[in-house]
């Protein structure tokens, strides 16, 4: 059994909980997720089975898209609705649509974020949330992420009330904290804020429309039709550049050979998928650090049997 199941992650489960449950349903230990989703977050969680676990990192590294809601008026310890309130300020003015659109557009492109204390980012070998649970505040590394697009999902012209909430859709790079983005949006509008809802709607090539629930996975397993919902390894690599080779070179690739970099991939910064003439992914290659014009395998996906 190998391939990728785009799971619809329900609210209240960690990504690890999802992996544990699927191991029991599928009767296999070789199961891995492709990027942590907080328990309160729902949506697309691609799960890699068998040999597909080799490509999990390439799904993790690909872009993501989310639909979220920011609530302006108070902030929390966790930057989402599950945390304790730490600051409050009544929204004492009317915000108009143009003001909010201008703020949202101001976050497109590269931005700097400081990960929240309640996150899995490691500092000195320990996850930040472990420090947070002990009440210890540590210095957190600022990271640069990219917001490809951000859209307001609310047709109101004016926003008013003691608290103001509105939904948005965002497409972003790996490592973006939408919780932190919600806080930053509030700060730009002059108020404490938090993320009150979040769903991941896209991860690499997988969207909500592709997803299956636990119940559907169990049903397919019982029917002996689990292969019907397993996407091939190649789907996970759809966003990466390709280099198609003939059968003779394919044998060398399966043995981990160093290859000349094709002209079409010479300026690529992403890993390169080396594939057969029929489109089967054989290996992931990267530019050779010590041999200009050559590339070496980072991962061989299919070796000689």
From TrEMBL:
<keyword id="KW-0819">tRNA processing</keyword>
<feature type="domain" description="Pseudouridine synthase II N-terminal">
    <location>
        <begin position="23"/>
        <end position="178"/>
    </location>
</feature>
<dbReference type="GO" id="GO:0160148">
    <property type="term" value="F:tRNA pseudouridine(55) synthase activity"/>
</dbReference>
<dbReference type="InterPro" id="IPR020103">
    <property type="entry name" value="PsdUridine_synth_cat_dom_sf"/>
</dbReference>
<protein>
    <recommendedName>
        <fullName>tRNA pseudouridine synthase B</fullName>
        <ecNumber>5.4.99.25</ecNumber>
    </recommendedName>
</protein>
<comment type="function">
    <text>Responsible for synthesis of pseudouridine from uracil-55 in the psi GC loop of transfer RNAs.</text>
</comment>
<dbReference type="InterPro" id="IPR014780">
    <property type="entry name" value="tRNA_psdUridine_synth_TruB"/>
</dbReference>
<dbReference type="GO" id="GO:0031119">
    <property type="term" value="P:tRNA pseudouridine synthesis"/>
</dbReference>
<dbReference type="GO" id="GO:0003723">
    <property type="term" value="F:RNA binding"/>
</dbReference>
<comment type="similarity">
    <text>Belongs to the pseudouridine synthase TruB family. Type 1 subfamily.</text>
</comment>
<dbReference type="InterPro" id="IPR002501">
    <property type="entry name" value="PsdUridine_synth_N"/>
</dbReference>
<feature type="domain" description="tRNA pseudouridylate synthase B C-terminal">
    <location>
        <begin position="179"/>
        <end position="237"/>
    </location>
</feature>
<feature type="active site" description="Nucleophile">
    <location>
        <position position="38"/>
    </location>
</feature>
<dbReference type="Pfam" id="PF16198">
    <property type="entry name" value="TruB_C_2"/>
</dbReference>
<dbReference type="Pfam" id="PF01509">
    <property type="entry name" value="TruB_N"/>
</dbReference>
<dbReference type="InterPro" id="IPR032819">
    <property type="entry name" value="TruB_C"/>
</dbReference>
<keyword id="KW-0413">Isomerase</keyword>
<dbReference type="GO" id="GO:1990481">
    <property type="term" value="P:mRNA pseudouridine synthesis"/>
</dbReference>
């Amino acid at each position: 059994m190998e391939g990728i199941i785009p799971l619809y992650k329900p609210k209240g489960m960690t990504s690890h909980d999802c992996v544990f449950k699927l191991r029991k349903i599928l009767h296999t230990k070789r199961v891995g997720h492709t990027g942590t989703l907080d328990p309160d977050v729902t949506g697309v969680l691609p799960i890699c089975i068998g040999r597909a676990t080799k490509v999990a990192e390439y799904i993790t590294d690909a872009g993501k898209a989310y639909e979220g809601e920011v609530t302006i008026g108070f902030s929390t310890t966790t930057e989402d609705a599950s945390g304790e309130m730490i600051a409050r300020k009544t929204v004492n003015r009317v915000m108009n649509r143009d003001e909010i659109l201008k703020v949202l557009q101001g976050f497109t492109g590269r931005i700097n974020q400081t990960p929240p204390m309640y996150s899995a980012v490691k500092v000195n070998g320990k996850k930040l949330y472990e420090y947070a649970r002990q009440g210890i505040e540590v210095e957190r590394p600022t990271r640069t992420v990219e917001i490809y697009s951000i859209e307001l999902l609310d047709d109101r012209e004016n926003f008013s009330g003691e608290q103001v909430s509105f939904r948005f859709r965002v497409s972003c790079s790996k490592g973006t904290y939408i919780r932190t983005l919600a806080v930053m949006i509030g700060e730009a509008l002059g108020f404490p804020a938090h993320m009150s809802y979040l769903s991941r709607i896209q991860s690499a090539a997988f969207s909500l429309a592709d997803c299956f629930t636990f119940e559907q996975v169990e049903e397919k397993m019982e029917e002996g039709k689990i292969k019907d919902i397993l996407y091939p390894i190649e789907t996970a690599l759809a966003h990466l550049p390709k280099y198609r080779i003939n059968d003779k070179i394919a044998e060398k690739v399966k043995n981990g050979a160093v290859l000349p970099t094709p002209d079409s991939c010479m300026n690529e910064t992403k890993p390169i998928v080396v594939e057969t003439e029929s489109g089967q992914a054989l290996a992931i290659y990267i530019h050779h650090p010590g041999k200009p014009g050559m590339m070496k395998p980072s991962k061989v996906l299919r070796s000689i049997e």
